[in-house]
């Protein structure tokens, strides 16, 4: 691509970022496809649009003759846009719609305003790129951080997530408390089992050689 063509595309992109429609009679502006909802920044209505209203023009929302907004008609199609639409003033004389450079109050493009918009967009891209690099660096640092190994299965070691570490500690403390509270009961049961076993076993007399049978 030639240098001149790249410059044309860059200029086109710059214009699109701040180019909007100014409503006159509404005949040339499509409700759902053109940026006409604001005179401060390009704003195209968001749907969903019904199949009947997909090709609706702004002139369909204006009362013929008076040039006022047809509020009942607006309520039936894009009711959520009513507050924004009422901020706009259609042409009373029926002037045609026009494009305006919204980065200036006059609506006319100037080199100074174009340079300002281009610089603002460039700075925003730099900030976004820097933020992405910082997030990527944090992600790599998190991946390279090795957690301590608490147990192993055979010769393999499995590092645990910090939440797993906390749960493991809590479970260990709980088991230790249970064992300590029941250790004496366990000992008593074991001793009673041994005594019962000894008492239930038959007593055998000693055997001497030569004794009468």
Could you please describe the fold and organization of this structure?
The chain is mostly helical. Among the domains are: 19-102, no CATH class; 149-200, no CATH class. It is 46% helix and 8% strand. It contains 5 helices and 4 strands, in the order H-E-H-H-E-H-E-E-H. It has helices at 3-17, 71-76, 82-86, 111-144, 162-200; strands spanning 19-22, 98-101, 149-153, 156-159. Strands 1-2 form a two-stranded antiparallel ribbon. It is extended. The N and C termini lie far apart (122 Å). Mean pLDDT is 75; it is low at 145-157, 160-168 and 193-197.
Summary keywords:
mainly alpha, two-stranded antiparallel sheet, 46% helix, extended
Radius of gyration: 42 Å
Strand content: 5-15%
Terminal residue distance: 122 Å
Residues in helices, as a percent range: 40-55%
Specify the number of helices. 5
Broad structural category = mainly alpha
Tell me about the largest β-sheet: 2 strands, antiparallel
Oligomer: single chain
**Shape field:** extended
Main β-sheet, spatial strand arrangement:
1-2
Give the uncertain stretches in residue-range form: 145-157, 160-168, 193-197
Average pLDDT: 75
Q: What is the H/E string?
A: HEHHEHEEH
Number of strands: 4
